[in-house]
Amino acid sequence: MLVPVEHESLTAFYRAAGLEIEDNWVETCHPVKSLAKWEDGNLAAAATVSFRQGIYVLDYIAVLPSLRGSGHGAELFHAVTQGITPVYLVAKVPPFFQKMGCRNTRQNPFLYGECASCGQRGTACFPRLMKWKGKTV
């Protein structure tokens, strides 16, 4: 079951899941919706959609490594984006987001510029700017 969660409470989880996240992300990202999934009393997966520079952005989505491939990511993606379109994202794992119906885009390149200085870029992350229009493949 997915439940709404306080945005600030997700910082440690997102870091533990391998995401680059700053301490002040709530102030800079302006999150509008964060959902989480719990298993056996532990946080297993979470996602956050924000509203920045006039667009909705899927800023974070993470599933614990031991639970990847279980469908939690897809469930979270669809729930957190429900009723919000279009949604832009910088995909660390493009094939997953393509399965969700996201497509490559060149619109709103400020998002791609944000990850240009990330230490994971080109090593652990090969980002792609994508857009979701509310349709699943």
- For the largest beta sheet, what order do the strands appear in spatially? 1-2-3-4-5-7-6
* CATH architecture name: 3-Layer(aba) Sandwich
Inertia-based shape: globular
Number of helices: 5
Between the first and last Cα atoms, what is the distance in angstroms?
A: 24 Å
CATH uppermost class? Alpha Beta
Reported by name, the CATH topology is Aminopeptidase
Q: Please provide the count of β strands.
A: 7
> CATH homologous superfamily?
Gcn5-related N-acetyltransferase (GNAT)
Major sheet size, sense and barrel closure: 7 strands, mixed
Provide the structure class.
Answer: alpha+beta
Strand content: 25-35%
- Give the radius of gyration: 14 Å
Return the string of H and E elements: EHHEEEHEHEHE
Query: Which range best describes the helical content: under 10%, 10-25%, 25-40%, 40-55%, 55-70% or over 70%?
Result: 10-25%
Mean of pLDDT? 86
Supply the number of structural domains: 1
**Uncertain regions: pLDDT < 50 for 5+ in a row?**
none
Characterise the protein shown here.
A hairpin with a 2-residue loop joins strand 2 and strand 3 (42-52). It contains 5 helices and 7 strands. It has helices at 11-16, 25-29, 72-81, 94-99, 110-114; strands at residues 2-4, 31-39, 42-52, 55-63, 87-91, 103-104, 128-132. The longest helix has 10 residues, at 72-81. Helix content is 23%, strand content 32%. A 7-stranded mixed beta sheet has the order 1-2-3-4-5-7-6. With 137 residues, it is of the alpha+beta class. The model has no long low-confidence stretch (mean pLDDT 86). It starts with a strand and ends in a 5-residue tail after the last strand. The chain is globular, with a radius of gyration of 14 Å. It has one domain: Gcn5-related N-acetyltransferase (GNAT) (Aminopeptidase, 3-Layer(aba) Sandwich).
